Each structure stands twice: as C-alpha cells, then as structure tokens.
C-alpha cells in the first residue's frame, strides 16, 4: 500500500523505472494525495485529474513546459511539444518530474492519441508516473507498444471509498456509460480477430444498426434489442464464403462470446438471437471507422 508508510516503496519503484498503477474498488484519490503529501513535498509534481471533462492533453503538456521546464519558446503543435519535453529531460539527468494522474482511463485521456502521449512521457527515465484506473475494461486501451513504454507495476488498493470527486461531473465515466471507453475496448479486441471473424462481426453490427427501429428486431417486452437470428447470420456468412458449415460459424461465435463482443438469447419460438451489447452511437462510430 502507498499509505501507512508504504509510500516509500512506491517512490523507490518509480525511481527504478516502473510506472505504478493503482486499481481496485473504491476511490484512490485520498491515497494518491497522501503519497504526494508524505513523499513528494520538496519534489516537482504535476497532478492531473483525468475525470475532469474539460481536461485537454495540451493543457497538461503546457503545465510541464511552462511550470516545470519554464520554457519560453515551446512549440504549439502537440507532437513537437512532446518531442521538446523528451529532449529537455533527456539532456539534463538532474531534472525530475513526478507525474500523478487520477483516472488515467478518464473520459478525456483514454483515447489512442492521448494514451500515446502519456506513454511517451512515462518512458522518459526522469519522469515518474503514478496513476489510478477505475474502469473494469481500462487495460484494453493499451496495446503492447504502450504497455512497454508505461512499464506498469499494478497495485491492488481496494478501498471501498465512495467516488465523490470522480463522479462530481455530469460526463464522468462512472455516472453514465462511457461510449469512448467502450469504443477503444471494442477496437482493440476487434483487431485481434482473424479477417473472417472481423467480417462476421461486421455483419452482425450492420444488421443491428440497420434494424434498430424495426419492431421485428427490437423486443418490445424487454428493454434491449432482440438480435440477429443465428440462421440468418449463417446464410449471410455462407453466401459471402466466410464459413462452410454451421459448426464453423459456431466456432467463430465462441470467440466473440469469450471476448464479450456478442450476447446470445433465445426468442419465444426457440430461435437463437445475437446482439452486440454496445449502445447505438458507439457501434455506429465503430462501423464507420472500419469502413474508412
């Protein structure tokens, strides 16, 4: 634990090149604040609240260039700015920055672009990252390249404390379903599928989008979409030469089920129905991205 005297261990680990990431049920805000107060009193610290809906990555970089490095001619372009920050820290080993991020998986930080920038900061030897995550699917926003840069050391700090600060904003990821986190998770899992499996998944997705308002598709008794009949999916996949048999399709669907990409249910007449448990807007954005 980082509190109760364990903060020194966290300090040693980040100095050794690890990024410490806190996870578990309950707010970690007090724990991170205590770590800052007890271990980093006389050290340069940048604290970022990832749950702020108005936070931008440029503001975060500006805080480093203006307040920590005190640069007067920092580039406006984000990528040039991160290049400059890396260069400044690498050229002066005496420079140090302790980078504390509450909710690194927050609504404005979890995008591919922002995580790319955060991972670049974390890989700099004299920038030390300590962060927290709260979304159960947060690890899906990082690919192997980013994970290698972050070099995370995971600490379970389950506190069961209420998410008072984190949920004080209307767009907090814990107040409503975060479509963007779902989109990032969906995209990462989708990329791991075979070409045929991707095409099968897109057939289900497009059918779901095209039939959203169809009373024969939407279950009027229950509040969720009934789904695409398995037999209809089978014949579409067979016509497209994606599968050669019923068993081949079921094997592909087993992978979808394992990744929680689709859900099964049975209709009143016993038919097998499939639907994707993602909201309409997120699924639309995902399909649009795949067709570009």
TrEMBL record:
Q: Which residues form the signal peptide?
A: none
Q: Which positions fall inside the Origin recognition complex subunit 2 RecA-like domain?
A: 14-157
- Please indicate if the UniProt record lists Nucleus as a keyword: yes
Q: Decide whether keyword Secreted is in the record.
A: no
Q: Name one GO biological process term.
A: DNA replication
> Superkingdom of this entry's organism?
Eukaryota
Its biological purpose is as follows: Component of the origin recognition complex (ORC) that binds origins of replication. DNA-binding is ATP-dependent. ORC is required to assemble the pre-replication complex necessary to initiate DNA replication.
Query: What name is this protein filed under?
Result: Origin recognition complex subunit 2
